[in-house]
Amino acid sequence: EVQLVESGGGLVQPGGSLRLSCVASEFTLSNYWMSWVRQAPGKGLEWVANINLGGGEKYYVDSVKGRFTISRDNAKNSLYLQMNSLRAEDTAVYYCARDKPKPRAGCDYWGQGTLVTVSS
Amino acid sequence: DIQMTQSPSSLSASVGDRVTITCRASQSINSYLNWYQQKPGKAPCLLIYTTSNLQSGVPSRFSGSGSGTDFTLTISSLQPEDFATYYCQQSYTSPQTFGQGTKVEFK
Asked: Which of A20, A79, B55, B79 is least surrounded, with the fewest CB atoms within 10 Å of its CB?
């Protein structure tokens, strides 16, 4: 069964950094675009970033550009999100998700999420 | 960025009701519109991709339609397990954007 397991969340002070990881199992990561989506407490979903198969093409929502970096290590079947200069408004559950093989057809598998809390 | 607007924000319905949720994009997104269901404390689940394609394993009471800027998710006969929040998402261009969600509650 396809699984995505996130880790790395926690409490961090404003201005701090965190690195989220997502380990994929039961499928070959290198065959799929991957995404990060977040959800602030009690709020809706917000797409954060995605990355192409080889990692050379990356896209971000404006609010995280220059602060967050998405990356992948296909050999380790892992996806990452490096988050710097964190702000209170970055507080959210962060989900990693697998894009469907068909281009631009949504995300068909999601992790359980990891909570990031930015607070002093 | 493309703005996605769902309506209504919430609705009350009974088991067996036909439920329709609409999603409007601020510009044409062709057919690149997806629908998700989310239950409290859980990750979203893909229901419909590219407007009208049913994701594997999703019951056939769910259907999607539309094109350009206006899209619809229909649940033909609401079941107890369908009480949840539904989100549309445009995947036409980055940044991909979600609607604000529609909460389907028990009447």
From this structure: B79
